[in-house]
Amino acid sequence: MQTNKEMVDWLRENREDAPSKIFDAMEIVNRMDFLPEFVKSEAYSPWDALPIGYGQTCSAPEVVAFMCKHLGLEKGQKVLEVGSGCGYHASVVAEIIDPGKVISLDIVPELVNMARENISRTKKKLGRNWDIEVVYADGSGGYEKEKPYDRIYFTAGVPGNYSLDVLSDQLVEGGRCILAPSMGAFRLGVKKEGKIKSGYVGDFFAFVPLRGRYGFE
Length: 217
Hints:
This protein is α/β, with parallel strands linked by helices. It has five helices and nine strands; from the N terminus they run ααββαβαβαβββββ.
């Protein structure tokens, strides 16, 4: 695909089970605006995660759409993202939930700066007023300071024994979280009666390993 619209059109046709508002947001938020120069030529591949430096990647657009769909994003929500990366995913979410708020965490200071700069530049370019706060923090156990959240999602793969209990008091009742192991199906959790009950969705995905206290290092 040569343009952002071509990429999004492909997603609309091949991921038609997702709400159109997700694709509308992805058509507005141009992935190329967030990527380093050395991978911009591959920006419009819907199925490829792309390196952004520091051992991290920008998630494939089809994965972004998949996660947004299962999170059930709605306007006005407060969302926690673990793994800011280049800021692309957070911007798509912010466009969907506007005037909600996204708290985005990253453990790599250089990526915190990258995400902040990309988001600020893109907001100005699009004339948007997204409420996105990018924070340098270990988000492997969520982020107590800004709780509670309507939705939580991880953009890095968790260990196989990762317990959702660490996130339970950070989600509102009925809130959702989605995360995946480094390789495998996503775990989708919904908070019911004070506890997160989860199941698996999707087939096979690969993510860079989650870092931090509850991650791999």
